[in-house]
Specification:
Layout (H helix, E strand, L loop, with lengths): L7 H12 L3 H6 L1 H22 L5 E6 L19 E7 L7 E6 L4 E7 L4 H13 L2 H7 L2 H7 L21 H4 L4 E7 L1 H4 L4 H11 L1 H11 L11
Antiparallel strand pairs: 1-2, 2-3, 3-4, 4-5
Helix pairs in contact: 3-9, 5-10
Protein name: TIGR02453 family protein
Organism: Flagellimonas lutaonensis
């Protein structure tokens, strides 16, 4: 049976975990964690089924609750949230979807977190040639109303080989190309949350379509796919 809601009990557990982020407490509440983990995984599976009605998803990745503390100043052993990502299918479709569920800090994100060197160069060359189609897509009312402005890390001046005075340097500087939508706890716990996330993901499709077209063609518009 599909799970279409996130419960208050789930968020109550995450709040308690944040207050008691230690192995002894977690082991004592492992069965409660497993119950909520199972329900949350079912929610993400349902969301993937919705996504596949209007996109092609290659895989769902659920992130583990256990933190890697080897190189972190924060030595708390557990994440006080659930999170998962959805990868689009194959070389033809680019970009990904992400959803984090955390009391007070839940958000959905879409786009390109860590484009490889070749993809990043191709995107920048597109902006160097003509960024107007890209600006039209990201500034469309239907997208901005839900996702706001393009976000992501960027270099301080200009990437090597690009003119720091270029008219599109604001885009050429970027290293990431993502959109983020925050959700309140009441929104996450509402009966319509699944529908709202899915509708948000639908709204980003023109952006993904354009970026996929850029990343699968050269500057002459010729396909790079076999």
């Amino acid at each position: 049976m599909e799970n279409t809601t996130i419960t208050k009990e789930c968020f109550d557990f995450l709040k308690e975990l944040a207050k008691n982020n230690n192995r002894e407490w977690f082991v004592g509440h492992k069965s409660t964690f497993k119950k909520h983990e199972k329900a949350v995984k079912e929610f993400y599976q349902t969301l993937m089924e919705r996504l596949n009605q209007h996109d092609d998803i290659e895989k769902l990745k659920m992130f583990r609750i256990y933190r890697d503390v080897r190189f972190s100043a924060d030595k708390t052993p557990y994440k006080a949230h659930f999170a998962g990502s959805f990868s689009r299918l194959g070389a033809h479709l680019r970009g990904g979807y992400y959803l984090r569920l955390k009391p007070g800090e839940s958000f959905a994100a879409v786009g390109f977190w860590q484009p490889n060197k070749e993809d990043l160069f191709r995107i920048r060359k597109e902006f160097e040639t003509d960024a107007e189609p890209f600006r039209q897509v990201i500034n469309a009312d239907s997208l901005k109303r839900i996702w706001g402005n393009l976000e992501g890390d960027e270099v301080k001046t200009a990437p090597k080989g690009f003119d720091k005075e270029h008219q599109n340097i604001d885009l050429i500087r970027k290293k990431q190309f993502i959109f983020v939508r925050n959700f309140t706890d009441s929104e996450v716990l509402s009966l319509t949350f699944l529908d709202e996330v899915d509708a948000s993901y639908r709204a980003i499709r023109p952006y993904f379509d354009l970026m996929s077209d850029i990343l699968t063609t050269n500057l002459n518009g010729e396909s790079l796919l076999n």
